[in-house]
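We now fix the convention by which a protein and its fold are recorded. The integers have meaning only within a learned vocabulary of local backbone shapes. A complete example follows; check for yourself that the lines match position by position.
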Amino acid sequence: MGVVLALGACAGQGTSGSSEGDGATAGGTTTLTFWHGMTGPDGPAVQQVIDAFNASQDEIKVEAEPMPWDVLYQKVLTSVSTPNGPDIIAMSSSNVPQYAGKGALATTDDFYASSTYMDTSPIADTAIGASVFQGANYGVPFNISTMMLYWNKDLFAAAGLDPEVPPATWDEFEAMAEKLTIDENGDGKPEQYAIAMADSATIPTYQPLLWNNGGGVVNAEGTTSIVDSPESIEALEYWVSLLRDKKVSPIGLAGADADKLFQTEKAAMEIVGPWMTTGFEEAGIDFGLARPFAGPTGQDTLADVVSLTLNANVTDAEKDAAYTFFAYWNSVEGQTTWANGSGFPALRTDIPAADLTNKYSSIFGSAELLDNSQVYLAGVPNAGTITDSIFYPALQRVLNGDGTVPEVFGQASKDIQAAIDKG
């Protein structure tokens, strides 16, 4: 993004009443401002854990400020150096390198260095490692979520399909999509779509499709762009054709738009995480859940890790308070409350499934899913720029017929490589 930060002193940020800038109020309470993007049905579960933490002691108070993820990421760089900026910022692990590389985040290596705050060994290694950048850790796990295929059983039945059998492969999806895409008046704008696939302001929806054809955006080491590899181009051409020519999904959807399309029964399928289970249930959707359909070479799904990160300007007192909250969030009590309230998998591996009352926690946390999932762009420099400023604009161009996939993504690959090399 080419933004240069001038991070100044930020004494007492996110606090009140402290002349020493150590984050303590006159009453001895350290108040921490916490930004996160859980504005959907998962939001109340976040607040439930925060409320329980605040009630468990009187030395630290966490004040959450939820906002849409795109707004959060736009505001972080300009807000961390201001007195009213956040102390704690939740962000997708793929965005951590972008902000850590600009000096906006504090390292959290000392959280893991000893058992002062907690024994971190029960936390899933994938979640801990997702926030590592250039050898240092810049986060503590907030959540991990695998993506699953939701399908609307009523719409499947209405299309003459078995309501209990979702597509298991790309070929099966294409065959079913023909029956599930309904354009009654033939104007090219279906009244019902086979699937809702977002191409901006969303989780990486398209990138796993490249993985499952033997391609990807970057190589396994995160050092080289492979978005123009034959395997990646083949996958992109296939899916662009399905959307552009066969109208299986609208073009130009943001993540929230895709959720709404499925929720209002105008799309028969969506690949999304556990945070939408409550919203879809409340909408009365009779949905099923399955591993996303396999590609020609694999069936990996996205494992999205969100990390709790620290403003680089927090004081020692604020860091200590934040670490205390991080430990509570990742405690058995905190993770049980979170998993039961949200349907997300618990971050801890030592919580028995029988102790979780939300059935979706074990479904999304199944070994089959976790063992066949990847974290997108973890530790890759300028990951946010690669996704939001290069990949998605290129995708939107080809979906709208502005250039061919090889042409557009050939240039995108050069831009991605430049972003990686810039570090």
Summary: The radius of gyration is 22 Å.
